[in-house]
Design brief:
Blueprint lengths: L4 H13 L6 H16 L19 H10 L26 H10 L18 H11 L11 H11 L16 H12 L9 H4 L12 H7 L1 E6 L16 E4 L2 E2 L10 E5 L4 E5 L2 E10 L7 E4 L2 E4 L3 H5 L12 E6 L5 E6 L5 E16 L5 E10 L5 E6 L11 E7 L2 E6 L18 E2 L2 E13 L2 E4 L15 E6 L5 E7 L7 E11 L2 E8 L2 E8 L9 E8 L2 E7 L1 E4 L2 E2 L3 E4 L2 E15 L2 E5 L1 H4 L5 E7 L9 E8 L1
Parallel strand pairs: 2-5, 17-20, 29-32
Antiparallel strand pairs: 1-4, 2-3, 4-5, 6-7, 6-9, 7-8, 9-10, 11-12, 11-14, 12-13, 14-15, 16-17, 17-18, 19-20, 21-22, 21-24, 22-23, 24-25, 26-31, 27-28, 28-29, 29-30, 31-32
Helix pairs in contact: 2-7, 3-4, 5-6, 5-7
């Protein structure tokens, strides 16, 4: 699921013709180069801009590409007022670009007075041009000029993913790589060339791909009716991401929010909808900036969205609506409940009573329930406690039909899964596939986290771990609510011991290297084992703990440790302690990974096959 379709097709093609495929890193690098260079318009010329990657680039086209990669882009006309060369008349389509490039010294003609615009550009000619862009002059090329140029070309890593000899002609693909390498190279004065052109750089000093992509982002578009006609490209050739994951076009649902990048031919889909009663329009309906639904404030993405909640709009306080949230979590549009009937299942977090103001300004007291759905969104809904008793831990089904909400207890039918083992990529449970945009929530004692299917790869759950599931029309799992399946909601550290006092027992423990203690009255002794432990906290108060299982580490990888001829996966968050002078000192894995100097023990909460992870690592000096 993580591999792009393009990557899979590449490997299939190589296998079919008997070629050695590029590594995934090389494919990714080549793909990134193509996307960046095409996004900033370097390859767009007045002639043959849609040439294939294997097409040879002519000297005329390369000249315009050099202009596109320079600070002169958009300031040079394709027309010239003179005929510089015998074979480049002032009416020639690229005469203006050739005139500018020759004047800047980026490219030269031949001694016989010709330019040979239709001849393929050679590597050494192209390298000379980009080195000139980087600020180098002929005086920098001592001795054999060609040899000096090619030596500098290699030393500045301009040759990355290019295999041509100096006199060979370059293809579109070669030029893309050369230009991308030039962007990421430093000029003669030591400045990254991309920053010279005004592009944002990332923390590693490379052109910021995400910034470049977001700069081109357009939208939002609401998925409804003939919405694809608003895209400037065919969805059949587009890369599609939904809620940050690759997906198919068929995974896009009605009223999803879409953004797109024309240059990258990429569609970004967000399925983040909130349904409930409008409890407040803030600060007022004459100049609204946000709306409160279910006890949470949502800002408006733009004036159009805000107008629908203003005095000029149709949405009023007390209305039940569905808001659609965009990429930054702001409201991009709103639907009346009769436009978008909704059924939601959720886990009850709490219940209570509150005062509700009606449209006439009168108040009444009613019960409410707060629940969380599989997406991790919290909702608050009023209900009648005389006809329904709810408490924390219940599953509820809430339906909104034509502006009327109904709520009832929900009991899931027996799960239809052949077994409770997830596949190696996490996208199949038993023999039932998960949708590419599946929503998974893990819960424990009122706390919850959203998790990706990859977190459950190769995990074998018990049936009791599944509180709720939803199956779509294609017999795929679209939602899961789990009961403490991962262990990621507990805290982990070291139980360091207890002290007895006249009033009871004080338990001492470390979490994230910080000392904590719990005073317990005599007679309410907790069953705690000294050493690495898991801690169950409620409202930041310790309620129970359990010992972790330790293994002696024989090797350490990036995401795993090896012990007893088995690999154990590190948790996304784990603590490393150095035990010295009878004290546990928080440290990092890098500082204790020298196994010739340290004995290292790794502690897990449960077996990896049940979703366990290495939570605590303790090192001692040999």
């Amino acid at each position: 699921m993580k591999k792009s379709l393009a990557l899979i097709l590449c490997f299939a093609l190589f296998a079919a013709v008997g070629l050695t495929p590029l590594t995934q890193t090389q494919v990714s690098a080549a793909s990134r180069a193509s996307e960046v260079i095409n996004a900033i318009g370097v390859m767009e010329t007045d002639m043959d801009s849609n040439a294939s990657s294997s097409s040879v680039v002519t000297r005329a086209r390369f000249t315009q590409m050099l202009v596109n990669l320079s600070t002169l882009k958009d300031s040079i006309s394709n027309e010239s007022n003179v005929s510089l060369f015998k074979d480049v008349k002032k009416s020639y389509w690229a005469s203006g670009y050739i005139q500018a490039a020759v004047k800047q010294g980026w490219i030269t003609g031949y001694l016989n007075g010709t330019f040979k615009p239709n001849q393929g550009i050679t590597l050494q000619e192209a390298v000379y041009g980009v080195l000139k862009l980087l600020g180098y002059s002929d005086s920098d090329f001592t001795g054999s000029k060609i040899s000096a140029i090619m030596k500098l070309y290699a030393s500045k890593d301009l040759d990355t993913n290019i295999t041509k000899a100096s006199t060979e002609k370059l293809t579109e693909g070669d030029c893309i790589n050369l230009f991308y390498n030039t962007l990421n190279a430093t000029n003669k004065s030591g400045t990254k060339y991309a920053s010279v052109l005004g592009y944002t750089m990332d923390s590693k000093g490379n052109i910021d791909y995400l910034s470049l992509m977001n700069k081109d982002l357009e939208g939002p578009i609401i998925v409804y009716g003939d919405w694809t006609s608003k895209l400037p490209f065919d969805t059949g050739v587009a890369k599609i991401y939904k809620d940050g994951k690759t997906c198919r076009f068929s995974d896009i649902g009605s009223y999803d929010v879409v953004y797109y990048s024309s240059n990258f031919k990429t569609v970004y889909v967000y399925d983040d909808k909130v349904t409930g009663s409008v409890s407040a329009i803030n600060p007022n309906f004459t100049s609204p900036t946000s709306v409160t639904i279910g006890g949470k404030d949502y800002s408006f993405a733009d004036t159009d969205a805000a107008l629908k909640f203003s005095a000029m709009g149709n949405v009023k306080k007390g209305d039940i609506v569905t808001i659609m949230l965009g990429k930054d979590g702001t409201v991009v549009d709103v639907l009346d409940i009769d436009e978008y009937n909704v059924t939601m299942a959720g886990y009850v977090l709490s219940t209570g009573i509150h005062a509700v103001e009606d449209k006439d300004g009168d108040y009444s007291v009613t019960e409410y329930v707060t629940f969380v759905d599989a997406s991790g969104n919290e909702f608050t809904q009023d209900y009648d406690s005389n006809s329904l008793y709810l408490e924390e831990g219940n599953l509820v089904l809430v339906k909104y039909v034509d502006g009327v909400a109904s709520i009832r207890l929900y009991e899931a039918a027996p799960a239809p899964f052949t077994n409770y083992a997830f596949s190696s990529d996490g996208y199949t449970l038993g023999h039932t596939a998960l949708t590419s945009d599946v929503k998974i929530l893990d819960l424990k004692k009122g706390k919850y986290i959203s998790i990706n299917p990859e977190r459950l790869a190769n995990v074998n759950l018990g049936s009791s771990s599944i509180l709720y599931y939803a199956i779509n029309g294609n017999n795929q799992i679209s939602e899961l609510i789990l009961n403490g399946a991962t262990g990621d909601l507990d805290s982990y550290g070291i139980y360091t011991g207890s002290t007895n006092t006249n009033s009871g027992i004080t338990y001492k423990y470390l979490i994230d290297g910080k000392s904590n203690s719990l005073a317990s009255e005599t007679g309410s002794k907790l069953n705690m084992s000294q050493g690495p432990s898991g801690f169950v906290l409620e409202n930041n108060e310790l309620v129970s703990s359990y010992a972790l299982t330790g293994v002696s580490v024989s090797s350490i990888g990036l995401t795993t440790v090896q012990a007893n001829n088995a690999k154990y996966t590190l948790a996304d968050k784990y603590s490393v302690y150095l035990y010295v002078d009878k004290e546990y000192v928080l440290t990092t894995l890098d500082k204790v990974k020298n196994l010739s100097k340290f004995n290292v023990m790794a502690y897990f909460d449960k077996s990896i096959s049940l979703g366990g992870r290495i939570r605590v690592i303790v090192a001692t000096q040999k």
